[in-house]
User: Which sequence fits this backbone?
């Protein structure tokens, strides 16, 4: 009976052999899954990691454009720029989103949001995620960590610049939180990753924190070099200054009456203007498929990059371009005319923004006026006469036959070629550009920030001459007023996610001093209360971190 | 008189003690089937504490036997025998395998138990009770037969089933039960995207001998790490001693039994004339029923051949081959399967070493047909299917008037989509196990069991569209490229179980203990070319982290006098999904059974033949359905489309990923009280179970503090869910005689689930719906059932018609806002019922299965997203459900969140009616020949206005693959 013994031994042997609890320590085998140490021990790891901090402004997750690293918000709607556009432009007289069955939209565009609004949640989560990523980069690149990895001097120099950029990107997110929420979670690289309920930073403290961060980062940042394609898209000294300028321009809003910083604003604007940027001769090149190379790269201070192949998202310029088409395919503009397949007609222009162009016939020649005011047959052979569109948007938003359309953004290059992909555009979103600085200079001057009136007038007319192609649109000295600035900002910068901030600064946003269609709800608009100058901190964020406060009216 | 009787009894009692000498008896117990000795047979002197068991050679010695003693010989799976001792020196016993008794052996995980010894809530369904009909996937053999088990099978050929035992136990993690085939836990059913239709579709239903369903935690805890949602143990058929050949063949046709009511071409023309008078000229002249066009009569056949017998009289073997060809109702959809199965069951060393080898090699070929129902429901009925002028393969498509190119974002011709798409998966799967059960020669009370298992599946899949397909890559851009993707998907699952069983009878007490070790590893790898017509795409390889599960377990069963039963078990489980400090969990269980009917006061009852009380408690663990690597400090690299451009170059970026180093087991504690009963010698029998399940530390996707982690939500152990229920089953042999038999069985279960705690008390919206981007219609809220519908309350006019956009101000604060949404229904039913009847009348047999699901709601998203006049024209004409005439609703956004679309989805369905006729001994060599015919899904009774209330999509009806009605003809042949 020896055989049975062999069975028994075999049995025991296999039992022992397999008893390896070490197998419970798994290894990541997919080349897209890495451990933190693997990332930074590989060549190019620091670039990949800072790329992740930048990338969060454009992509919503690393799997594909339809899969988000956030929850509770549709992947496309949770894109950084799309969130910013929804909160800064859709909540104003600039634009209407036709499909109010998309959750949260009605509350945003009718100024009736609450702490459970998913679009508010989407932007808050995306911006705080930017802070997390920047913190993680700073955490992984301390001197101690660099020593540990034995990095050489060249790498250290590169990392020093990246670290400064991470701080600028973090400051950018904090600036957006300040502007929209007046508060932010005060999370820095010194907080451990996990579930720490970090304190809140709000109002003046937040303002000063952003300011100090930008000033501290400046020394290590790249200089402005618009012609240098190899530095395109980097958060350089110009970007840091631009955020500072915005901070100073709106200081009274952030810090309260009497705390203006227009002089600082004007000074920083001068520094930016003198650092080498120039206006692109063609206004629309700023919003084209090749705005990274067609000359607009000299004007755009900070682009959020998109690429039809490599950098895909359902936000940024993509959603705007896809949604600009005429709902009726028989009429222009067609999706093809923008170089895309089209998602249907998503956007229309509210009457009040249309009027900043339509109220004066002179703007018929303004290149910035891309309003579609009539239905022109898309068939070039058609002899049908164009049918004028009604400037008013009807109460039923699904009836898209009235209201003007917009044709500002495009996925066609300056040479007339469509972008690489019909769904995902090549057009970078111009988050900050020089024209804005010109307008800020003029405004800061008019607000008593110093500088020269002639210079201010010159900047405005530079923009006008570019827009009109000649001096026919130039304004006279007497025309240069604050009210003019607000309207001119709308003409120059509409649909670029600035309008809400501008209206608030000019005291036209809340209350009844300025009513636009669908403001507060009704087709003809209504007054809204003061608290709608801000968005509420999302309820889910406050539940996870009770240290976060809430804005008045949303408790 | 009483005194006299007692005294007489007393005297009788004394007789053996005082007058007869005690002696010893020896003998050998053998198996009537193969003549082999049977070790471990319980040999007991009846009504005493005196007993022993046979050794490895089947020999036994029993001391202290007196004349007149009754000696019982019993062994699991054999008919017990009783012998009256009358001084024999040797009693050799030949035990007969008992078919009836065999049925009563229930697999309980790492061992077996007699059904009457069970202390947990375990249901057994054997082949005799299997459902009749076209059951292509194994689970449908017992649909409706087990109280508390809901099997919801979708309509595709060999459609996947959602199986819920006692409602599942989790919110975010898996709710699927563990499925174990001959001791091998097979791959997680949620991994069904590998080209196979479902976890069980690769398995030949004809190979299955029985299902054991472990419902409560006291029984499932022995599968600790994955027992949380119950366990289904499948036993396959084994080789037998005598040659048996069985041939089954059946053929069936399935027809469409119901369609969504939409407007016909003529009705639609009238409707447009009324709503869009200036567009009438753009309408077509056809009358197309697009739903008729995408469906067909689907023919199916199944053939099964099995041979079992003993090779050279020593090697019991079973071989089976099954071929199944199933067409789906949806055109082009098809399932083809060939399974081969080999079972070798040698018994060596006088039955000391039992080897069971099971090997299966299966081929599945699936052609998938895309869910084109939505396009078919909304496609303009005035347009024809074919358009001779079309450049898209001669199919009508909406094209741009000037360019002739297909317009984006409109319906595509659903018929073209079906006929032009070839989406085919070839799955090769082999699985099997080798089990060595060795009874130690030197210590026959101990058995050592080794079970080695493997389950490998290799899928190669492609999707192809011709160049003239309007659904091809970039077709709306004017390209004619078609489409092509290839996918390879391989999974592997390896198992090793090793355990010892010690079984010993001490007088009237029987003790069985089991202790062992289990190791299982899951690996997967996927290769995808992505769209090959897209020059920017490059192939990708996806490799999820391996999953490893390691467990140590022990169990003890104590039987006293066959009256009192105690079971205790403990399991220590490690999972690779948790970090080092949290990966081990302990899962204890205890249960108690009391055979009340064996007590003296009931023993002689002629009415009550069985009464048994069961009490059970157990803790099980859950880690299924969650990602494997959340505890690691993990970064992800970007895909080719999610990179960023820096320094003028495309940078493959990395981002840190959400992490939770503290993630650990979700734990489910369950209490169960059960009562088994039988009357009139068990002609009427059944059981009642009451249970309460508490799921704690739920693996939940919950908000995390902003700025310190890498998402706004992530996996955390927060939350609590309670499930309570009552299950009742009864079966009766109403008529039982030589020529006529009629038995009926019925079961009903009641289930109530409630969320007790969510992270931070926060509601969680979920349940995405059509008709908008990112809309949710369901909620998780404390105090409510999981998957509750969260809607506004519709306001109706005096005629009972819903008023568009008018919702009730439930908070009474004067405005209707998000605070006025309320819970208007739930997805899980209150009651499940099954009723089965079978009549054998001479050579005829007639059976039916009726099943009811009561008390659940469905959100009719087909109607809510389409049945509004505003949708009749959007870029192009769109058809709509005719229910829009009842509501006259115009705008989708104004009504999509109305409770009007939350409908009662209770139903009663006649799953199957079968009539058969059996010819016996018709010719030489044929022992029986049965011809039968049946109807599957014969009818359904429901108030639900949509196509079918039984849907899988968590209660959101977004159009389904219809089930159809199936007519079957079959033949069984036995030799």
Assistant:
């Amino acid at each position: 009976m020896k055989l049975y013994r062999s069975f028994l031994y075999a049995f025991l042997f296999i039992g022992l052999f397999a008893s390896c609890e070490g197998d419970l320590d798994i290894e990541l085998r997919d080349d897209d899954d890495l451990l933190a140490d693997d990332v930074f021990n590989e060549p190019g790891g620091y670039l990949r990691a800072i790329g992740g901090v930048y990338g969060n402004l454009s992509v919503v997750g690393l799997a594909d454009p339809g899969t988000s690293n956030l929850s509770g918000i549709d992947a496309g709607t949770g894109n950084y720029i799309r969130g910013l556009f929804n909160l800064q432009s859709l909540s104003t007289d600039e634009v209407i989103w036709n499909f109010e069955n998309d959750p949260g939209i009605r509350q945003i565009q009718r100024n009736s949001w609450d702490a459970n609004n998913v679009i508010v949640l989407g932007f808050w989560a995306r911006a705080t995620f930017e802070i997390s990523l920047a913190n993680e980069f700073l955490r992984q690149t301390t001197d101690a960590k660099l020593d540990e990895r034995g990095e050489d001097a060249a790498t250290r120099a590169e990392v020093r610049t990246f670290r400064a950029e991470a701080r600028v990107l973090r400051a950018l997110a904090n600036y957006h939180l300040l502007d929209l929420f007046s508060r932010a979670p005060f999370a820095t690289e010194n907080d451990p990753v996990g579930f720490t309920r970090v304190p809140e930073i709000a109002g003046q403290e937040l303002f000063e924190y952003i300011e100090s961060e930008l000033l501290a980062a400046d020394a290590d940042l790249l200089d402005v070099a618009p012609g240098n394609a190899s530095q395109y898209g980097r958060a350089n000294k110009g970007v840091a200054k631009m955020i500072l300028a915005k901070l100073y321009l709106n200081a009274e809003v952030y810090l309260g009456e009497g705390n203006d910083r227009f002089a600082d604003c004007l000074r920083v604007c001068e520094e930016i203007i003198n650092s080498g940027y120039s206006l692109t001769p063609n206004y629309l090149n700023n919003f084209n498929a090749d705005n990274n190379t067609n000359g607009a790269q000299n004007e755009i201070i900070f682009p959020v990059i998109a690429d039809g192949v490599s950098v895909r998202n359902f936000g940024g310029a993509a959603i705007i371009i896809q949604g600009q088409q005429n709902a009726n395919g028989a009429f222009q503009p067609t999706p093809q005319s923008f170089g895309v397949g089209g998602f249907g007609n998503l956007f229309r222009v509210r009457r009040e923004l249309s009027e900043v162009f339509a109220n004066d016939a002179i703007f018929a020649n303004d290149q910035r006026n891309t309003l579609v005011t009539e239905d022109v047959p898309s068939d070039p052979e058609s002899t049908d006469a164009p049918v004028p569109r009604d400037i008013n948007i009807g109460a039923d938003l699904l009836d898209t036959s009235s209201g003007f359309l917009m044709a500002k953004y495009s996925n066609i290059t300056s040479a007339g070629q469509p972008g690489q992909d019909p769904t995902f555009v090549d057009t970078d979103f111009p988050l900050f550009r020089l024209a804005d600085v010109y307008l800020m200079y003029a405004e800061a001057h008019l607000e008593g920030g110093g500088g020269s009136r002639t210079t201010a007038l010159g900047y405005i007319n530079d923009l006008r001459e570019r827009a009109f192609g000649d001096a026919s649109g130039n304004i006279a000295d007497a025309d240069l007023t604050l009210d003019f600035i607000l309207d001119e900002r709308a003409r120059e910068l509409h649909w670029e996610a600035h309008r809400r901030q501008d209206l608030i600064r000019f005291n036209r946003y809340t209350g009844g001093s300025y009513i636009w269609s669908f403001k507060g709800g009704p087709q003809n608009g209504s007054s809204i209360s003061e608290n709608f100058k801000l968005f509420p901190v999302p309820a889910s964020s406050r539940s996870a971190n009770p240290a976060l406060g809430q804005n008045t009216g949303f408790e | 008189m009483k005194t006299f009787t007692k005294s007489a009894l007393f005297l009788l009692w004394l007789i053996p003690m005082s007058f007869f000498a005690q002696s010893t008896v020896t003998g050998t117990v053998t198996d009537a089937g193969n003549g082999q000795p049977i070790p471990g047979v319980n040999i007991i002197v009846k009504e005493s504490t005196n007993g022993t068991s046979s050794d490895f050679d089947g020999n036994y010695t029993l001391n202290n036997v007196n004349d007149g003693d009754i000696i019982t010989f019993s062994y699991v799976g054999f008919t017990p025998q009783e012998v009256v001792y009358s001084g024999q020196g040797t009693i050799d016993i030949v035990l007969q395998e008992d078919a009836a008794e065999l049925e009563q052996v229930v697999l309980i995980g790492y061992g077996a138990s007699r059904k009457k010894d069970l202390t947990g809530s375990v249901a057994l369904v054997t082949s005799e009770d299997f459902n009749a009909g076209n059951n292509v996937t194994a689970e449908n053999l017992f649909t409706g037969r087990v109280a508390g088990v809901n099997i919801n099978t979708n309509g595709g050929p060999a459609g996947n089933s959602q199986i819920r035992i006692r409602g599942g136990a989790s919110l975010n993690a898996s709710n699927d039960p563990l499925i174990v085939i001959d001791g091998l836990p097979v791959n997680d059913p949620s991994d069904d995207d590998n080209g196979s239709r479902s976890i069980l579709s690769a398995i030949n239903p004809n190979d299955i001998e029985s299902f054991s369903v472990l419902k409560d935690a006291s029984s499932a805890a022995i599968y600790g790490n994955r027992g949380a949602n119950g366990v289904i143990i499948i036993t396959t058929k084994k080789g037998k001693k005598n040659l048996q050949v069985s041939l089954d063949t059946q053929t069936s046709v399935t027809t469409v039994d119901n369609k969504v009511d939409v407007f016909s071409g003529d009705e639609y023309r009238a409707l447009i004339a009324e709503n869009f008078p200036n567009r009438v000229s753009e309408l077509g002249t056809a009358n197309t029923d697009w739903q008729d066009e995408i469906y067909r009569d689907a023919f199916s056949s199944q053939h099964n051949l099995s041979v079992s017998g003993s090779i050279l009289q020593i090697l019991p073997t079973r071989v089976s081959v099954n071929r199944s060809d199933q067409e789906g109702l949806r055109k082009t959809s098809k399932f083809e399967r060939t399974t081969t199965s080999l079972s070798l069951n040698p018994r060596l060393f006088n039955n000391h070493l039992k080897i069971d080898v099971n090997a299966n090699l299966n081929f599945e070929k699936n052609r998938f047909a895309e869910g084109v129902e939505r396009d078919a429901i909304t496609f303009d009925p005035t347009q024809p299917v074919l358009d001779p002028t079309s450049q898209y393969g001669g199919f009508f498509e909406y094209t741009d008037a000037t360019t002739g190119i297909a317009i984006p974002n409109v319906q595509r011709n659903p018929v073209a989509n079906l006929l032009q798409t070839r989406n085919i998966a070839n799955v090769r799967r082999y699985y099997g196990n080798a089990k060595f059960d060795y009874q130690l020669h030197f210590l026959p009370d101990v058995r050592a069991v080794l079970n080695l298992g493997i389950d490998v599946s290799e899928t190669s899949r492609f999707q192809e569209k011709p160049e003239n397909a309007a659904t091809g890559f970039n077709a709306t851009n004017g390209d004619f490229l078609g489409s092509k993707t290839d996918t390879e998907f391989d999974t592997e699952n390896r198992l090793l179980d090793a355990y010892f069983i010690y079984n010993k009878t001490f007088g009237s007490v029987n003790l069985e203990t089991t202790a062992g070790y289990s190791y299982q590893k899951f690996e997967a790898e996927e290769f995808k070319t992505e769209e090959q017509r897209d020059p920017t795409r490059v192939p990708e390889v996806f490799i999820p982290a391996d999953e490893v599960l390691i467990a140590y377990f022990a169990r003890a069963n104590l039987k006293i006098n066959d009256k009192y039963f105690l079971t205790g078990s403990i399991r220590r489980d490690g999972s690779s999904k948790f970090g080092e400090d949290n990966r081990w969990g302990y899962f204890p269980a205890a249960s108690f059974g009391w055979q009340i009917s064996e007590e003296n006061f009931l023993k002689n009852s002629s009415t009550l033949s069985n009464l048994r009380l069961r009490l059970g408690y157990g803790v099980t663990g859950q880690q299924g359905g969650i990602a494997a690597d959340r505890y690691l400090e993990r970064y992800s690299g970007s895909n080719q489309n999610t990179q960023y451009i820096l320094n003028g170059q495309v940078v493959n970026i990395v981002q840190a990923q959400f992490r939770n180093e503290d993630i650990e087991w979700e734990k489910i504690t369950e209490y169960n009280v059960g009562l088994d009963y039988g009357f009139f010698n068990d002609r009427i029998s059944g059981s009642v179970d009451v249970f309460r399940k508490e799921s704690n530390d739920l693996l939940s996707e919950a908000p995390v503090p902003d700025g310190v982690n890498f998402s706004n939500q992530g996996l955390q152990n927060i939350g609590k869910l309670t499930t309570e229920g009552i299950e009742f089953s009864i079966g009766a042999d109403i008529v039982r005689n030589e020529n006529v038999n009629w038995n009926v069985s019925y079961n009903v279960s009641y289930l109530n689930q409630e969320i007790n705690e969510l992270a931070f008390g926060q509601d969680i919206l979920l349940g995405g719906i059509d008709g908008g981007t990112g809309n949710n219609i369901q909620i998780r809220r404390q105090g409510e059932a999981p998957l509750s519908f969260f809607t506004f309350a519709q306001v109706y006019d005096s005629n009972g018609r819903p008023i568009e956009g008018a919702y009730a101000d439930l908070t009474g604060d004067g405005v209707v806002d998000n605070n006025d949404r309320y819970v208007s229904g739930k997805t899980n039913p209150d009651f499940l019922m099954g009723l089965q009847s079978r009549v054998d009348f001479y050579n005829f047999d007639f059976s039916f299965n009726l099943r009811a699901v009561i008390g659940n709601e469905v959100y009719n998203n087909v109607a809510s997203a389409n049945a509004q006049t505003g949708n009749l024209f959007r870029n192009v004409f769109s058809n709509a459900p005719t229910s829009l005439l009842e509501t006259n609703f115009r705008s989708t956004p104004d009504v999509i969140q109305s409770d009007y679309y939350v409908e009662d989805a209770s139903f009663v369905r006649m799953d199957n009616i079968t009539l058969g006729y059996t010819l016996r001994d018709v010719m030489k060599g044929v022992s029986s020949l049965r011809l039968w015919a049946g109807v599957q899904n014969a009818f359904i009774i429901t108030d639900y206005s949509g196509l079918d209330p039984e849907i899988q999509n968590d209660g959101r009806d977004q159009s389904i693959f219809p089930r159809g009605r199936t007519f079957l003809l079959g033949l069984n042949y036995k030799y």
